[in-house]
Structure formats: structure tokens, C-alpha cells
């Protein structure tokens, strides 16, 4: 650490070059931060679905509603704590598909029982049960559109026409639910409608439950309970497929295609370019300073010292640029998540992303520092001072 | 003019001496252009597949206000009325060329490995007219499905993208077993990612009545308006009428916009990095040429030739990088086939398409980056204090 001042001075010997290299490093790590965060979002690490919940869907496709009569049978399976059902509503707000947010028609009593980690004030729960057109929303959704209890929300369903063939539904917000403990409720961006009214008012599909949401008593039983449920309906007209809620959600993302490959390809290109650029900077830095390094050796610095100095300089450069870029990416993401009217999920650079970034900084500084450092190490004083 | 050319050429001959630094521009810009073209070729390919689906002389009727076939439904009592609407072409036997089609979403596995993804695949029930109307659909293997039997034909992309889709194989959907009896080719359009069967068979097997949509052959291009007017005039219909091509073209907007935003964010950030790299390179190139430049100025050359020579060097290196990036993206991704979730909530297979306009776009970016990266160093080179530079030598 006592050579900090020396390394610092060496780093800024050529101001323009160091600034420009740092700027490139900052953009590279800003991209790394953003891409890694997107990647962890798509790979499900960000999906906060730790509740012991299974989703039973029709085997043919989750878009085919299961009939309501399956519910008691599922409820009777040992290990099942509570059963709810959920029908995707597919409504579009203000005719703009960019305003997308998920809405589900559910049974209020069953919903409250199945998602104890999401809490709804008792008076609002009562209002939801008794208001036919009542709907509850999560705080994230409330913030996005500035909705509050008492607001009317018009939605055009892409799937469900009303009895008269019109698709324009209107719901009254009667409650806003929250998390029981911090972030325990993963449904804060959703809207839940009153199933009884929905089923009565829709033109077709009446009596269909949608998917069945199963809360199990013990998370370790997930696989066994899922198998029991599916076995029950095997070879019937309503064959089911049961999986954990997390797998169910992940499958949505996986349907989009191999995003990981695309993201990593971009990252690969970014790092190849930054490797060339930083490597070149370090080579030049040593090249320009050969006489100075020789002087250092003359006044008693060992070969190892000089090697260490050059490596530390590379490390400083990469860590300085890398950390700045990462901090910028964190700032960008929180700005995006807090921006009103943007449907951007709050993604945080988690520990894994930071470790990956730190690893990248270390590897990069080694890759770009080793060659110039060895050159400084091998430097013979006489030749260097003679300018040979 | 001649002096500018002479000095620029002289400068180019010395690039070899600074090859390491020069490579920073080339590689940096190659990466930007490669990523830019690679990503845009994805939305180009998607557009190409969907916009290549359907024709202008067939019209699609959907429930009013829906965005996709999946959300649409035409009741069984409305179907015969729709068939007899004016503007619809009739075949030799006098029957209207109209096909009420059923869309059913089924799940198939995609990708090998222990945990393949379950993806949504469209199973389309078509009426005989639906096959007669679509001459682009050709059976390339096996035979056509027979009405009344649980038989289906699969699009060529479906056989490649999803597991277990081959002639003779059986697929299980909702308690029923279906046999794949043939493979069809439809000139690489979106239908090639689907499974097709007879509409009545699909109605029976999946307990559906009516149809999701109705595809009709128009008598002529002008008949579209006739058909639209007839639908609007009759209050029994709540339907939207579009040409088949317009419908499929509208399905690309979301995907194209999302890829466009993502690409712009990534490419602009990368371009910033590349500009810094180019500046770095060109400043150091100018520094290396200090004495040379000062000498030129001392013996009477003006500032302009110096500026041009530096700018030209940056731009030429940038163009080389751009060409390298374009070539790399072409070789790596062009023609690569992938599938993603379409508007219908089912998989659509498409191939990356590196088109000439994308190459032009990539080269434009590379020239712009090279120009910006060369401009400031060029100005500095022209302002170099001659005496000091010569004294330093």
C-alpha cells in the first residue's frame, strides 16, 4: 500500500489516454451490469416465488381452462393446504398494449387463503367479496398508473367478451394488497378480479376455472403432490400438468427463445473489444515509461517490485473503470424501475452479478497487465537507459 | 488537392508501424457493428417470415377489436352467414372459397437435455377450402390428414423446432392421440411452425363450436371493400376484416419494437466505448507522428492536409472494422433458425436475415464512429506547435 501514490502517479502520466481508457471501461461495465441483470431476470434468479405453490394446468396447454369440478378432488390430496383457481383475463388498458399488466379472475375467499404472504386490510377484503365489479391491485401497479381505492378501471379483454359481445369491462378498485413482510408478496404488479361476476358476465367459457393454484403444507412435498394430482386425471378429458410456480413462470421466459445465448454473445463482443483497448493502453503506458522504470530499478527497486507496480496499475485502471460502470448500471436500473409509467420490473444487481463483475475486472487486469508487466520485469537497466 | 492526397497516402504507408494501436479501432468497431447487425437481423428475419405470410387477395375475418387469431371467435350460427357474404370468390362448383379455422394451443417440448422447455404450438383446424385457397402449402412428405381421424400434418419448421414431430409419430393432446401423417412446406412462412388438421376433427376433439377465424378468397382486390361494407352493414356481425397480409404484418410490430429498443441501447453504449477507443488510438497516432507533422508544417504545408490525413486514417480503419464486423455477423448468424413466442402466444420459427440495408446501416455506424474518433485528434494535429514539436525531436 505504501506504493499507492507511485502507482497513482504512473496511472495519470498520460491523462488523455487514461481518461479515454477509463471511459471505455465504464461503458463496458455499464453494459455488463445491465446485461447480467437482464440475464438473471430471464434465468429466474430474480423471480421471487419462494412460496410453496404448485400450478396445475391443462396438459394440452395452460390456455385451456380446467373445469371447476376438479377443485374438490385436488383439495382432497394429502399435503395440500389450500386450493385456489385463476383465470387469465387478458385485458388491455386504454387500448395500448404497452400498458400491459396481468389480471386474473379469482375467488376472493380462496385467494386470501392461498396467498397468506400477501395481505389485504380486512375491510377491503370484505369490500372485494361483496362488490361484484370489485378488483384488488398490488402497490407496484397502483404506483404505475396512480390508482387508488375507489377508482374505476376500464379494460378491454382480448379473450373474454361480455354477454352482449362487447369487450369493454369496467372494474372498481376496492383494495390494495401489500407484502406481509418485506417483498414476501411476488404479485405486486397484478390485478385480481372477482370471479363470480366475471363468470356470470362473460359470453362463453362459463364454469371454467382457469389454472388451479395449489398451496402445499410442506415445500419438500412439491414433487410428490404434483405427481399425485396428475395421476388422478390421467387419461381423462382433463389431463393435467402440475409444476411449481417458479417452473411455470420460468417456462414463459424460455418460450421466448435462447436469450442467454444472445446476451452472452453481446457480452463476449464487448469484452473482446475492451480487452484489445485496455491491453493496448497498458502496452503503451509501459513503452512510454521505459527510462523511468529503469531509473526505479537503478535506485533499488527489484524486478519483482517493478512487475508488481505495472500489474497494480492495470488492476487500478480496471477496478476504477469497472466499479464506476457497475455503479452507473445500478443507478440506471433503479431509475428505470422508479420511472412512472414504465413497465420495467425492478431488477437489482444481486451478489452474483457483482461477483461476476469483480471476477471480470480481475481477469481483465491480469490479461492486459501481464504482458507489459513481464516486459518491465525483464528490462535491463543499461539497455533501457541507453535507449536501446 | 494533390498535396492532401499525397500526405494521406504517406500516412497510410506508416499505419503498419502502429499496427497494434490501429487494431483497437478495427476490433472495437467490428464488435459494435457485428452486434448491431446481428441483433437487427433477428427482427428482420422475424418480419420476413411474418410479412411473407398470406397474400393481399385473401381476407381474414376476426372478432371485432382483437389483436390476434387466438383471442378471436366466430359463433357456429354466424359462420354460414359469413360464408355467403358478397366479394368472396366461388370455386368451380359454386361453393364459396371460405375456411372457418380453429386455433388450438398445444404444448410440445423444445430442445434436448434433461429439462426441455414446454412451448406453445398452434394446432390449426382447416376446412378443405383452406387448403385449396393456399397454393403455397405443399405436402413434401407423407399424405394429407383424413377427416374424422385424429391425423395431422406438420409444418416443416415444426418438425425441426419441436421434439417428436415426424411422420408416423404420435402426439398426445388432451386425452386424445394424434398421428403425424405428413409434412408441409409453405415457402417458409409462419404457418410452417404449426400443426394442421381437419377443422371438424379439431372441433370434435377439443369440444369447440364455430371457428376462431375465417379466411376467404376475394374475387378481386376491390372486393375487400365490398366485404367490409357488407360486414359493417349487418348488425349480426361483430367482425373485423383485413387482408391476410395486413394481419400478419401487424403481428411484427411488438417484436420489432422491442428488439429495436434493446439494440439501440446496446449499440449506442458500445459505440460510445468504441469512440473513446478510436480517440485514444488517433491521439496516440498523432503523438507518434508529431515530428513528421511538424516538419510538414515547417516546410510550408497547410493545416488542412494534416487534418484530412488523420481523419482519413480513422475512417479507413473504422470502415475496415465495420466490414470485419459485418462479415462476422453474416457468417455467424445469417440463416440461423430459431423460434420465439409470436402474438398468437404460439411459437413462430424464423431465420436471422442479414439484409443489404442492415449492412449499409452497419457501415454508416462505423464511418460515424471513425469520423468522431478522428475529428478531435485531427484538429489537435493541425494546431500542433511546430517549434516545440521539432525541438522535442
Summary of the model, kept short:
The complex is a heterodimer of chains A (388) and B (393). Chain A is α+β, with helices and mostly antiparallel strands.
Describe the structure.
The complex is a heterodimer of chains A (388) and B (393). Chain A is built from 14 helices and 13 strands. By secondary structure, chain A is α+β, with helices and mostly antiparallel strands. In chain A, the strands form 2 sheets. In chain A, strands 1, 2, 3, 4, 5, 7, 8, 9, 11, 12 and 13 form an 11-stranded mixed sheet that branches. Chain A has a two-stranded antiparallel ribbon with strand order 6-10. Chain A is elongated and about 95 Å long. Chain B is α+β, with helices and mostly antiparallel strands and 393 residues long. Chain B has helices at residues 2-13, 19-51, 79-83, 128-133, 156-161, 199-206, 223-233, 244-250, 253-288, 290-298, 303-333, 356-383, 386-392; strands spanning 58-63, 98-110, 117-126, 138-142, 151-155, 170-173, 176-185, 195-198, 213-217, 239-243, 337-341, 347-351. In chain B, the strands form 2 sheets. In chain B, strands 1, 2, 3, 4, 5, 6, 7, 8, 9 and 10 form a 10-stranded mixed sheet that branches. In chain B, strands 11-12 form a two-stranded antiparallel sheet. In chain B, helix 11 runs antiparallel to helix 12. Chain B starts with a helix and ends with a helix. Chains A and B meet through helix 2, helix 9 and helix 10 of A and helix 2, strand 2, strand 3, helix 9 and strand 11 of B.
Core attributes:
heterodimer, A: 388 residues, alpha+beta, 11-stranded mixed sheet, two-stranded antiparallel ribbon, 14 helices, B: 393 residues, 10-stranded mixed sheet, two-stranded antiparallel sheet, 13 helices, elongated
Per-chain topology:
The complex is a heterodimer of chains A (388) and B (393).
Chain A: H1 4-11, H2 15-42, E1 53-58, E2 66-67, H3 70-75, E3 80-88, E4 91-93, E5 103-106, H4 108-114, E6 118-119, H5 122-130, E7 134-137, H6 139-145, E8 152-157, E9 168-176, E10 178-179, E11 191-194, H7 195-201, E12 208-216, H8 222-232, E13 240-244, H9 245-255, H10 259-288, H11 290-298, H12 303-338, H13 351-378, H14 381-385
Helix pairs in contact in A: 1-12, 2-10, 2-12, 10-13, 12-13
Chain B: H1 2-13, H2 19-51, E1 58-63, H3 79-83, E2 98-110, E3 117-126, H4 128-133, E4 138-142, E5 151-155, H5 156-161, E6 170-173, E7 176-185, E8 195-198, H6 199-206, E9 213-217, H7 223-233, E10 239-243, H8 244-250, H9 253-288, H10 290-298, H11 303-333, E11 337-341, E12 347-351, H12 356-383, H13 386-392
Parallel strand pairs in B: 3-8, 5-7
Antiparallel strand pairs in B: 1-9, 1-10, 2-3, 2-9, 4-7, 5-8, 6-7, 11-12
